[in-house]
Amino acid sequence: MQNKNIKKKNFLSKRFRKFYPVVIDIETAGFNYKTDALLEIAAITLKMDESGWLKKEKTLHHHIKPFIGSIVNETSIKFNKIDPFSPLRGAVSEKKALKSILKKVNEGIKIQKCKKGVIVAHNSIFDLNFFMSAIERNSIKKNPFHPFVTFDTATLSGLAIGQTVLSKACKNIGIYFDNKQAHSALYDAIKTANLFCKIVNKWKKLGGWPI
């Protein structure tokens, strides 16, 4: 029998001051968000279950064609092992990938009664800069994300676990991490989402939420 004290529906708006958190991971061909190619992006939306525990919801993943005039640094693609020009990638344009993600985010914001999306990422300033630069480059209107607020899991992990590296933070909190699969946008986004949810839920378990 369901506990009458458990609300039938929990909204993220009640947890993050009307922010709608979306886990983002981006793989690139360099570190300059204005000139270097964006090669891969994964986005994971989140939800709360009936008891108020944070969980993953929908996952979107796209391989991206380097934009015209972009720089592809050999060192970067050797590191992430992405061949930007392989026809087997099934890559799409930045604009198509971004519109797909933003559509889902806007739908989620409406359903969850939020006002603004917020990027959740590991070392989030990197992903934020590349993401926002791609939106601007493609003249996409109605960007639902906050322009500078992020939830950085590197910072949260440093506080909660004493680790800032994604793989070490995951292992220390009990999340399996395969280093051979790292630096794939999809894999890293899943692990970052698991990490974020675990930290938020641990805080709730300890009595830190609701206040």
Describe the 3D structure.
The chain has 211 residues and is α/β, with parallel strands linked by helices. Helix content is 36%, strand content 21%. The chain contains 6 helices and 5 strands. It has a 5-stranded mixed beta sheet, sandwiched between helices. A hairpin with a 5-residue loop joins strand 2 and strand 3. Helix 4 packs across helix 6 and helix 5 packs across helix 6. The longest helix is centred in the C-terminal third of the chain and has 21 residues. The chain starts with 18 loop residues before the first strand and ends in a 6-residue tail after the last helix. The N terminus is likely disordered.
Please specify the SSE layout and strand pairing.
Blueprint (H helix, E strand, L loop, with lengths): L18 E10 L9 E11 L5 E10 L10 H7 L13 H18 L4 E6 L2 H14 L7 E8 H8 L5 H8 L11 H21 L6
Parallel strand pairs: 1-4, 4-5
Antiparallel strand pairs: 1-2, 2-3
Helix pairs in contact: 4-6, 5-6
Compact summary:
This protein is α/β, with parallel strands linked by helices.
Keywords:
single chain; 211 residues; alpha/beta; 5 strands; 36% helix; globular
Low-confidence stretches: 1-6
Mean pLDDT: 94
Please compute the radius of gyration using only Cα atoms. Answer: 18 Å
* Gross geometry: globular
Order of helices and strands: EEEHHEHEHHH
User: What order do the strands of the largest sheet run in, or round the barrel if closed?
Assistant: 3-2-1-4-5
Total beta strands: 5
Strand content: 15-25%
Number of helices: 6
Helical amount among residues, as a percent range?
25-40%
Class inferred from helices and paired strands: alpha/beta
How is the main sheet built? 5 strands, mixed
Distance between the termini: 27 Å
